Amino acid sequence: MKIMAIDYGDAHTGVAVSDRTLTLCGFSTVITAYRPEDVIERLKPLIAEHEVTELVLGHPVNMDGTRGPRAEKAEGFAEQLRAATGLPVTLWDERRTTVDAHNILAANGKRAKERKKTVDAVAASLMLEGYLTYIKKTNRTP
Asked: Domains, the chain, ranges and CATH?
């Protein structure tokens, strides 16, 4: 059993997959694609290869907790993911993950141009970390 976190974006989508123990991130990558259908087609082989059983999709709610156009776009993408993969999709609050990812990369000496290539994968890893912590604290079985 593994969980995949997805930081869906207009051009770049970060992906992080847990290890089998659901303790940490065992794999991460960035998919470059502009259409949601293309992102899904690139995700399917990763889901199969890593034997993923659950998807966690970043839900970009506004800082005040309201839903804007980006959150609605993620909700639509979640429906497409469910239909295309047959897997459960959990929407996960992703507030600040991209900012935190930039800060982590900057603190490790990555220049802006270098950060651009990996920031989405780091953001997905941070989402995954938060979700794994949540399921452990709540004794929820994925």
From this structure: 2-137 (3.30.420.140)
